[in-house]
Amino acid sequence: MRKGIQKIFSEAAETYELINHVLTLGFDILWRKKAAREAVRAKGFLWLDVCSGTGEMALYLSRLAGEKVKVVSADFCHQMIAKAREKRIIPNLSFILAESGQLPFADRTFNLVTISFATRNIYPNKRELVAHLKEFHRVLKPGGHFVNLETSQPSIRIIQKFFHLYIKLTVKQLGFLLSGSKSAYRYLAYTIPRFFPPEEFSSILREAGFARITHRSLFLGVSAIHTAIK
Prior knowledge:
By secondary structure, the protein is α/β, with parallel strands linked by helices. It contains nine helices and seven strands; from the N terminus they run H-H-H-E-H-E-H-E-E-H-E-H-H-H-E-E.
């Protein structure tokens, strides 16, 4: 992933969770829990949360998984991993510094791969997004599950316009106020309105090799959970 993006998330790590909760009015917590409950249907004994950030999704997964399942939390940003490790340690949860486009795992390693609110950060263009998704596909076992939680585009035009206006008026300003980082939240304010609507992202998942793709829109379509099978 680009060095500039790594620097942005290094600057944002200390207050990243707080700002996410404030900007979404706490709904991001509920959405992650919904996605985690979808994900645990994957079964198996080895799960990966990629682009894990401060480890919120990985923590939910490890709590739901049970002692026999090992959850790996992977992120490319040392500061994010450091924040994740500050959480209460759970025996079945481990952390690793890893680049999402070149995961340090063998083919067919995991029963489940999840990613939450990070997919829009790995696509400077569609070709590179597909390449990352193919990497997630590579490390999944046959029949393994992929769960993607991300901001989305409401299908109703007036709701989409209000959503984009809210992003424009709040993300950059409030993010800077709480974190002190202009670049981090300028970047996030730019990426959110430009991510794909759910049907188009489903097509991209299919192009990356996934099958049995479904999606579930959340809160009038401002976010979505996609599930897919290798």
